[in-house]
Design brief:
By secondary structure, the protein is of the alpha+beta class. The chain contains four helices and eleven strands, in the order ββαβββββββββααα.
């Protein structure tokens, strides 16, 4: 029927993962004291293994009428124009204020924004997914069966099987032929 490339799987685009992007959390800014009335300046840095992987300067303006945060950063060796993100807040049940970002693309209230390929937006606008959503769960029923037979939790069985898989990938491949007869050394 269909020709080369007509199958659905050949056209599926793989979504980028949140874990591969830089994330900006409103609760972190609040903990650091940046969401108090006034004008504040700071810099975020991201590092992995002790090496700095990225940075982003920001300017916070909390004046009660038009609360906002502006992000300034370089991407591809060029200074990206400042991205102004409006802030909103609500009263949680225990008192105080909980600040949220308004996504600069769609305007939805979000606790976390992400930077991907020089663009700032929410997970929905940047079409991101979580690693746990694409993790293969094909063998979960097998893990549950094994766990029931051995009196363990299926998550423990899954971790053990994954550890065995990683170990098997590190070991060198054995020859497929007949094992050679070894003579004892005298």
């Amino acid at each position: 029927m269909g020709g080369y490339g007509s199958g659905k799987n050949n056209w599926r685009r793989v979504k980028e993962k949140v874990e591969n992007c830089r994330s900006i959390d409103a609760n972190t800014f609040s903990r650091w004291g940046y969401f108090k009335p006034g004008f504040r300046i700071g810099t975020l840095t991201w590092s992995r293994g002790g090496n700095q992987r990225g940075s982003c300067s920001f300017v916070v303006n909390i004046d009660g009428s038009d609360d906002s945060i502006t992000f300034l950063y370089n991407y591809g060796g060029k200074l990206h124009p400042g991205v102004r993100v409006r802030l909103t807040w609500y009263h949680p049940g225990f008192g105080g204020r909980r600040y949220l970002f308004r996504c600069p693309r769609c305007g939805k209230r979000m606790r976390t924004l992400h930077i991907m390929y020089g663009e700032i937006g929410c997970r929905i606008c940047l079409d991101l997914t979580y690693e746990s959503c694409v993790e293969n769960n094909r063998f979960n029923s097998l893990y549950k069966y094994i766990a029931g037979r051995h009196g363990e939790t299926w998550q423990d069985v899954k971790q053990s099987m994954k550890a065995l898989e990683r170990r098997a990938q590190k070991e060198p491949k054995r020859s497929r032929g007949r094992p050679r007869k070894q003579t004892p050394a005298l």
